[in-house]
């Protein structure tokens, strides 16, 4: 069993598991933090961004004025943003065309799918739940839309030159594998990639070539999010990714099915172990109210699904108590409408109390009511209807949380200069300081309330204590306290035995050895067996059969009888019978008890016996006959020179003590 | 005992003797007993006045089918009857006494199993054991052993009563009462009351023997017995005189030593109690040694509790105090890495075991909390006892607070394995904040004030802080502000942070947080005012919050959806503005807006708290404003006119409120107006009511005796115009409507004020004609419905009484009252005189259940209940008072 680790990002994993004869990819997250090195893509012409000075090295030797721009002391690439893909192109770690299946755990962890299914010769199947596919598609469409509606003519590549890169200032200088960065995929690629997805439901068992069975379990993190169980008859591997124990909108996490795993691969813990989601939600609301009361606007850069549902639900309860009833809330995204509507129809994927609402004449999420009462309005973009209905002060939810593309760029330019406005970061994926870097100097107030509902270290320790896997594999980041808080020994995994850490490009030999394989036996053959009891409760029988293997299924079948001799009119040679199947030799079992054996020898006239103890047993020297009998745990040897009768006698004596099957 | 009761009692006794099942409710026997106890305590002899009781006792005791409740009552009654030596002798002449307390009898009857009977037995004996004869009886009957057995009864109440009883016997009959013996009423114990020393010696011998035996648990299951015994011993040692104390210590000394050595965790605290009780009543080498061993036991958790118990007792003994202090500071030292104990830590092994203990989360939290709650006291111990400066303890608490919030810098040298146990624990946070609040009084603490503020602001800022933690942080901040004299340490950054966090917290999702923030703003204004008054320093509020005015925040909070927050905002606004009002400052733009919002709340809010707060707002405004006459500036008069205008609306709305507290507050406001109108008047008695002392008028009957003013001085000058002003302001309407209010506290308060008013403007001592001549011109209007009608009814009734007496058949109208449409005008003076205020006052001062609470009523209830019981089918309605 081997694990290939293609991503170093603990919450955007991409691992490949080779298990029995299958090759399974577990998630294919796309690390989008690389976009932070690029300039934002404004929706309308931004004089500020277009006037940024080009970058020239101090000694003037490197001139990349066209590709790199300087803003507030940092250098940004002026080109269409690019993403850092999972590791597969330059290192010959693994041939991705050999991947049999890809298992997706949630819609955040599938964003690299088109790169893999469309460019590596992949011919397998992708498994995901319905909401994961639907919302994943929305995310991909949104990403493509963000990129394609503001096309950049040029594509910067010179800066990637090794010699050039070495002269760049940090952090550009230190980024690795820039050549592997890729621009966004196209909508065709998205469609093609998603056509390879096969839908599964929680606890549904999918057979892979008869070798293993995979099955998704609810992970409680987002709509349709799953952990996976990969098991054969004798081995069980659990893949835990992005799980949550908080009661938000999704179905609660299924923990009990993870029990008795041989190996548990643990990824997607909270990125904000010190920020408790409840506290952050409170912080979010109070900062929002504070800004609105002071007459300012609030900008919330966020993804178009997930935490936003919880934010809206929380605000639904909060706005009345905080007297914000008249403040408009806007949700702007190319997929805003679909996201809000889809969330209401995935009844079977929701938590219990939302599910029960489906049977009442009210929608499970209160955002429907916010829309009905005109408190929440959603638009595909800032162009069109929005511009005519836009009222301030207001609250705007829009993407992308990296602040590099999407409608959020426009609002940053619009509101950034006034200190009465506030930007509240709720997504934990990007460092807010880096996200804000190309907008500096910024007067707007910034509040960082990352809401990450994924498991924290406390919860995961408790979980592991309950499910008790034999081995745990996790990203190396989880095995030490965070760099900035080295004294917080409570923010790491402490297990016995210690977890096996992995990093990008690791190949782990999972410590679990396969020892058994299930073989079926046909009833007829089973009938013919004659078990003999070798110790109480344990019976053995010998079997002669033909082992038939197909689709990783092994069956013992009767030895085919020779075709009956065709009755011929003429007598043929009598001897032409098929060679009789040799009766199998009887098998011996048991051990020769030394004392009793010596007594027997004595009875049979072997009197001069010298016993020597060896590492494995005993050597009996029959001095008169000059013969040795070696009694060992797994064999008995009789060494005598050319005295066949003696050997036979001795052999028979030995056999008296052994059981025959 | 009055005659009526005496007449009913035999009947009641018959009922009780018959069967107890017909009692109206299960408290009647208790009430009956209370009544008897009261009579006995007043010196009455029940035996003489109610011979039927003795009969009752003998009947009940001989009736095997008696109800256990009645039996228990009988036992206690017997004890009560035999409480004096004389009556004891009388009872002893009857054969009943032996029977009543005869254990064997009860056991054979199978009634001893009932806990009711056992407790009756103990309490009966306890009442009786007030004289030597009783003790002799007790000893001769051999009751001491059964009593000792009851000490470990399965019922906790019985076990406790037995313990008390044992202590009572030993302490009450001590041969020489020590001078400072507390708790025991010795007045009845005259000469000749000394028990025969043989009896007492016997008792002491058996009890102390028992103590010695039962102190050390033989098996683990006997721990409860040891616990009980230790409790008893602590009771005894705290009050015993020297001979008894020495005797006891001599007997149990070895057992105590054995217990200390055994070191059972369960027994640590009770054992410590015993040792400390022994210490407090005298010094003894052996006890000192025991104390030393207690402060050296091996189990860290027990040790900490023992040390804390020692410090709490305030026992001053340098060696042991120093030891206790070290024990209590050690966990803090380990956790924070602050060297509180210096480097000469001798007990390394002990430290090791403490660290081990602290590694477990639950014991770590409990130990640290004990340490923290003792830190304030530790800092106050003499410097030669302290291993470090008091200020280092403040530093340690601060650094613990940082660790708790996860903000501790990594350079801190505390044990990380231990400190992770307290990260995020709100229990420890609360404990530490409480300690920090109290530490303001520690010597040198002020040096750390800047650090304190930083940490507290961090706590307020922390999104994960529990609402109660935030509340405690605010309290700590206020306390530290109040002791602060110099605000120069507050940097702009600190100020900015505080302002931001307060602004954020008034928008919090949790109403508790909003409420404590708003409250904090109010208190801060109060604290700042008091600082300003003390020293003409820089404005503390300004120092803390800069130029951020808190009024807009509070005004916003007036709109809050939670009534508590609205109420707190209103009182905070009052506190914030008090200073301006006192100075007679000009009206700000926002004040009229605030006032109109407040009046809106008073008339529309569905919750009582905000409405009460509104009336109190105007009370504090009215009482702190400077009267317009003294200040001539026009700005101040505009403020005054706004005040007077709104006070009028408050009076008329508050009067009609549904909440009785609002109405009482409205009356307080009315009183302030009366005070102002008549303060210069010779007959006016200001503060006729004790409203300052008790904000909760309900159930509190003022003890202040009401005295009629008997002055006859001329009073007419000016009073007339003042009265007219008061009427015009609506004060008289408030008082009159209050008088007929169905809530007693309201009516009581109104009645008092009306009497004061009457005594001022038209005292009864003056002839009727005299008064009416002077004041007849001032009249007030009564509405034709509601309270107005009520008042009119009273007036008419009085009038007709008068008419009958004077035999004048003119009942068509009211003299001095003119009917005009729906409303009616009455002369104020006339009304004041004819409302019968003094009679009304008398009725109102009695508590509402005075009729139903009387012994007579109780006896009647019992009789009625039994009557209906014998005639089934009729339901009895029992008074539930």
Multimerization state: heterodimer
User: Largest sheet of chain B at a glance?
Assistant: 3 strands, antiparallel
Average predicted local confidence, pLDDT of chain B: 81
- What's the β-strand tally of chain A? 35
Strand order of the largest sheet of chain A: 10-8-7-3-2-1-24
Subcellular location (chain B): Cytoplasm
GO biological process, one term (chain B): DNA damage response
InterPro entries (chain B): ARM-like, ARM-type_fold, BRAT1
Protein name (chain B): Integrator complex assembly factor BRAT1 isoform X2
Which tags fit this structure?
heterodimer, A: 661 residues, alpha/beta, Metallo-beta-lactamase, Chain A, Rossmann fold, TATA-Binding Protein, 3 domains, seven-stranded mixed beta sheet, 17 helices, elongated, B: 881 residues, mainly alpha, Leucine-rich Repeat Variant, three-stranded antiparallel beta sheet, 43 helices, flat, Metallo-B-lactamas (chain A), nucleus (chain A)
Task: Describe the fold and architecture.
The complex is a heterodimer of chains A (661) and B (881). Chain A contains 17 helices and 35 strands. Chain A is an alpha/beta fold and 661 residues long. In chain A, the strands form 9 sheets. Chain A has a 7-stranded mixed sheet. Among the domains of chain B are: 114-175 and 198-295, Leucine-rich Repeat Variant; 297-443, no CATH class; 651-687 and 718-764 and 775-797 and 822-869, no CATH class. In chain B, strands 1-3-2 form a 3-stranded antiparallel sheet. In chain B, α2 (28-41) packs parallel to α5 (68-81).
């Amino acid at each position: 069993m081997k694990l290939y680790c293609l991503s170093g990002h603990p919450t955007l994993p991409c691992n490949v598991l080779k298990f029995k004869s299958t090759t399974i990819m577990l998630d294919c997250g796309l690390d989008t933090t690389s976009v932070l090195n690029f300039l934002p893509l404004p929706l309308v012409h931004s004089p500020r961004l277009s006037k940024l000075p080009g970058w020239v090295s101090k000694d003037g030797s490197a001139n990349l004025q066209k590709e790199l721009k300087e803003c507030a002391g940092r250098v940004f690439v002026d080109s269409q943003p690019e993403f850092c893909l999972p590791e597969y192109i330059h290192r010959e770690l693994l041939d991705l065309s050999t991947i049999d299946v890809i298992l997706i755990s949630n819609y955040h962890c599938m964003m690299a799918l088109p790169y893999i299914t469309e460019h590596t010769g992949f011919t397998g199947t992708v498994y995901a739940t319905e909401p994961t596919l639907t919302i994943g598609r929305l995310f991909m469409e949104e990403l493509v839309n963000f990129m394609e509606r503001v096309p950049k003519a040029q594509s910067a590549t010179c800066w990637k030159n090794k010699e050039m890169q070495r002269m760049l200032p940090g952090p550009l200088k230190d980024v690795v594998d820039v050549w592997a960065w890729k621009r966004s995929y196209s909508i065709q690629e998205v469609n093609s990639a998603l056509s390879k997805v096969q839908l599964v439901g929680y606890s549904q068992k999918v057979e892979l070539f008869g070798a293993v069975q995979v099955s998704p379990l609810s992970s409680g993190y987002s709509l349709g999010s799953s952990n996976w169980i990969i098991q054969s008859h004798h081995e069980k591997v659990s893949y835990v990714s992005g799980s949550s124990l908080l009661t938000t909108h999704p179905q609660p996490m299924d923990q009990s099915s993870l029990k008795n795993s041989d190996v548990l691969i643990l990824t997607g813990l909270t990125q904000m172990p010190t920020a408790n989601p409840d506290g952050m939600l409170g912080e979010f609301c109070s900062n929002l109210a504070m800004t609105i009361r002071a007459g300012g606007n609030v900008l919330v850069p966020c993804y178009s699904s997930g935490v936003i549902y919880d934010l809206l639900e929380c605000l639904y309860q909060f706005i009345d108590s905080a007297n914000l009833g008249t403040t408009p809330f806007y949700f702007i995204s190319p997929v805003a409408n679909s996201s809000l509507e889809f969330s209401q129809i995935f009844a079977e994927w929701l938590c219990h109390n939302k599910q029960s609402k489906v049977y009442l004449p009210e929608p499970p999420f209160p955002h429907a009511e916010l829309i009905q009462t005109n408190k929440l309005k959603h638009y595909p973009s800032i162009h069109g209807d929005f511009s005519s209905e836009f009222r301030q002060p207001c609250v705007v939810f829009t993407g992308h949380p990296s602040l590099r593309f999407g409608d959020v760029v426009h609002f940053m330019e619009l509101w950034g200069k006034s200190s009465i406005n506030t930007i509240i970061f709720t997504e934990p994926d990007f460092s807010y300081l880096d996200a804000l870097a190309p907008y500096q100097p910024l007067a707007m107030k910034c509040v960082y309330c990352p809401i990450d509902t994924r498991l924290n270290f406390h919860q995961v320790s408790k979980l592991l204590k309950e499910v008790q896997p034999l081995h745990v594999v996790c990203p190396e980041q989880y095995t030490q306290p965070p760099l900035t808080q080295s004294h917080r020994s409570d923010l790491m995994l402490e297990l016995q035995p210690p977890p096996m850490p992995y990093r990008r490009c690791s190949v782990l030999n999972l410590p679990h050895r396969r020892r058994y394989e299930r073989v079926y036996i046909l009833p007829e053959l089973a009938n013919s067996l004659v078990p003999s009891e070798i110790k109480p409760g344990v019976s053995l029988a010998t079997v002669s059969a033909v082992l038939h293997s197909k689709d990783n299924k092994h069956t013992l079948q009767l030895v085919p009888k020779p075709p009956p001799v065709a009755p011929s009119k003429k007598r043929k040679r009598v001897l032409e019978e098929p060679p009789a199947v040799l009766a199998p030799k009887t098998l011996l079992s048991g051990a020769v008890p030394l004392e009793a054996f010596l007594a027997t020898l004595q009875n049979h006239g072997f009197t001069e016996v010298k016993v020597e103890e060896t590492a494995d047993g005993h050597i009996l020297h029959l001095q008169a006959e000059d013969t040795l009998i070696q009694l060992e745990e797994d064999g008995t040897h009789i060494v005598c020179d050319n005295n066949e009768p003696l050997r036979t006698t001795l052999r028979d004596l030995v056999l008296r003590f052994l059981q025959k099957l | 005992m009055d005659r009526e009761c005496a007449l009913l009692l035999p009947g009641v006794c018959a009922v009780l003797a018959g069967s107890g099942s017909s009692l109206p409710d299960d408290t009647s026997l208790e009430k009956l007993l209370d009544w008897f106890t009261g009579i006995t305590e007043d010196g009455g002899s029940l035996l003489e006045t109610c011979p039927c009781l003795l009969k009752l006792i003998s009947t009940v005791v001989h009736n095997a089918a008696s109800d256990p409740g009645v039996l228990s009552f009988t036992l206690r009654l017997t004890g009560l009857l035999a409480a004096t030596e004389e009556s004891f002798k009388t009872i002893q002449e009857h054969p009943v006494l032996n029977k009543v307390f005869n254990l064997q009898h009860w056991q054979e009857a199978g009634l001893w199993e009932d806990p009711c009977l056992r407790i009756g037995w103990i309490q009966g004996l306890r009442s009786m054991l007030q004289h030597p004869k009783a003790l002799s009886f007790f000893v001769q009957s051999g009751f001491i052993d059964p009593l000792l057995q009851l000490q470990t009864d399965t019922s906790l109440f019985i076990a406790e009563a037995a313990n008390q009883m044992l202590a009572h016997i030993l302490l009450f009959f001590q041969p020489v009462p020590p001078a400072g013996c507390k708790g025991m009423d010795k007045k009845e114990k005259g000469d000749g009351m000394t028990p025969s020393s043989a009896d007492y010696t016997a008792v002491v011998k058996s009890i102390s023997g028992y103590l010695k035996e039962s102190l050390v648990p033989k098996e683990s299951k006997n721990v409860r017995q040891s616990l009980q015994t230790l409790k008893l011993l602590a009771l005894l040692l705290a009050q015993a005189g020297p001979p008894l104390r020495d005797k006891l210590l001599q007997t149990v000394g070895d057992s105590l030593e054995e217990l200390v050595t055994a070191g059972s965790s369960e027994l640590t605290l009770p054992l410590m109690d015993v040792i400390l009780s022994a210490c407090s009543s005298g010094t003894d080498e052996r006890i000192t040694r025991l104390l030393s061993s207690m402060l050296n036991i091996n189990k860290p958790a027990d040790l900490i509790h023992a040390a804390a118990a020692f410090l709490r007792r305030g026992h001053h003994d340098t060696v042991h105090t120093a030891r206790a202090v070290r024990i209590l500071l050690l966990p803090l030292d380990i956790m924070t890495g602050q060297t509180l104990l210096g480097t000469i830590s001798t007990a390394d092994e002990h430290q090791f075991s403490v660290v081990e203990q602290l590694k477990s989360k639950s014991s770590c939290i409990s130990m640290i909390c004990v340490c923290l709650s003792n830190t304030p006291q530790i800092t106050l111990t003499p410097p030669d006892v302290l291993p470090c400066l008091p200020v280092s303890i403040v530093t340690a608490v601060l650094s613990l607070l940082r660790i708790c919030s996860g903000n501790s810098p990594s350079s801190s040298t505390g044990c990380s394995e231990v400190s992770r146990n307290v990260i995020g624990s709100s229990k420890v946070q609360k404990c530490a904040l409480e300690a920090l609040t109290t530490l303001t009084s520690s010597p040198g603490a002020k040096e750390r004030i800047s650090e304190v503020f930083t940490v507290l602001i961090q706590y307020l800022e922390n999104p994960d802080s529990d609402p109660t933690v935030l509340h405690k942080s605010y309290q700590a901040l206020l306390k530290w502000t109040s002791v602060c004299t110099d605000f120069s340490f507050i940097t702009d950054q600190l100020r900015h942070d505080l302002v931001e966090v307060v602004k954020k917290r008034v928008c919090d999702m949790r109403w508790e947080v909003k409420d404590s923030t708003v409250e904090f703003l109010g208190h801060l204004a109060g604290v700042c005012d008091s600082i300003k008054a003390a020293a003409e320093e820089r404005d503390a509020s300004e120092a803390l919050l800069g130029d951020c005015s808190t009024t807009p925040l509070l005004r916003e909070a007036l709109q809050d959806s939670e009534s508590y927050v609205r109420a707190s905002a209103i009182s905070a606004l009052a506190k914030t503005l008090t200073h301006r009002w006192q100075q007679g400052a000009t009206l700000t733009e926002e004040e009229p807006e605030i006032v109109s919002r407040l009046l809106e709340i008073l008339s529309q809010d569905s919750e009582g708290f905000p409405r009460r707060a509104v009336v109190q707002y105007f009370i504090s405004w009215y009482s702190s404003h400077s009267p317009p006459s003294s200040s001539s500036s026009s700005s101040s008069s505009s403020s005054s006119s706004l005040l007077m205008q709104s006070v009028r609306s408050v009076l008329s709305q508050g009067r009609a409120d549904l909440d009785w507290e609002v109405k009482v507050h409205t009356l307080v406001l009315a009183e302030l107006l009366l005070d102002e109108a008549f303060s210069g008047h010779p007959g006016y008695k200001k503060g006729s009511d004790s409203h300052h002392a008790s904000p909760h008028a309900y159930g509190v009957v003022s003890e202040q005796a009401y005295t009629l003013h008997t002055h006859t001085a001329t009073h007419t000058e000016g009073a007339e115009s003042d009265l007219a002003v008061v009427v015009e302001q609506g004060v008289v309407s408030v008082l009159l409507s209050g008088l007929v209010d169905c809530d007693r506290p309201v009516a009581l308060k109104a009645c008092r004020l009306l009497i004061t008013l009457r005594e001022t403007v038209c005292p009864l001592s003056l002839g009727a004609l005299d008064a009416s001549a002077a004041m007849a011109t001032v009249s007030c209007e009564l509405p034709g419905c509601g309270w107005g009608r009520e008042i009119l009814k009273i007036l008419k009734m009085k009038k007709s009484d008068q008419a009958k007496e004077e035999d004048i058949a003119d009942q068509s109208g009211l003299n001095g009252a003119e009917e005009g449409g729906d409303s009616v005008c009455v002369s104020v003076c006339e009304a004041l005189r004819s409302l019968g205020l003094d009679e009304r006052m008398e009725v109102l001062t009695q508590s509402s259940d005075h009729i139903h609470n009387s012994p007579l009523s109780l006896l009647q209830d019992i009789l009625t209940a039994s009557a209906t019981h014998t005639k089934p089918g009729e339901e009895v309605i029992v008074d539930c008072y």
